[in-house]
Amino acid sequence: MIEGGAKFKLLSDEQIILGNQGQLCVTTHRVRFEAQGSGSQAVDEIFLEDLSFQAIRMSSNPLYLVIAGLCAFGGIVAFISVPSIGVVFFVAAVVFGVAYVMTRRQVITLASSGGRIELEAKSMPRETLDWLMHNLAVAKDNRIRNLTARSPMAARAA
Predict the structure, then answer these.
(1) Which residues make beta-bridge pairs with 35?
(2) pLDDT above 80 for 128
(3) For 3, 51, 110, 129, which has the most beta carbons within 10 A of its beta carbon?
(4) Residues 111-138, buried b or exposed e (16+ Cβ, 10 A)?
(5) Cα dihedral sign for 7, 12, 16, 19?
(6) Whole-number CA gyration radius for the chain
(7) What global pTM score does this model have?
(8) The Cα angle at residue 157 between residues 153 and 158, in degrees rounded to 5
């Protein structure tokens, strides 16, 4: 998730918090995501102070699991009277079971009012995703505190 990608220039006083300037990189100022596909390339950035939404979404297609269960049940019933038909039902159950597993996805979404970054978190444990989301929130909080301390209103109040 974090390896690869081109180097980018850091802004003044900016440091990398998470990542290594690869596909996903969180700095003290922004989140940067680089994606490459067949014939396409995208670079998205959201400044931490503009980050308004972050989520982890898990999705799948449970209909495949229901069909797999029905095929397995049909396979048991059919196997008693016509074994060859029962085998066909069992094969169908396996195909639909595999289809269910293949449609399961975890997606991290980071959004601002101007755009969003979505990245698939392939086989990342939930604890790692929670850790990432927590560290994004901490980085955003630190960024806003830093900007508030530098604002002219804060200087007048001091």
Answers:
(1) 42
(2) yes
(3) 110
(4) bbeeebbebebeeeeeeeeeebeeebee
(5) negative
(6) 24
(7) 0.66
(8) 120
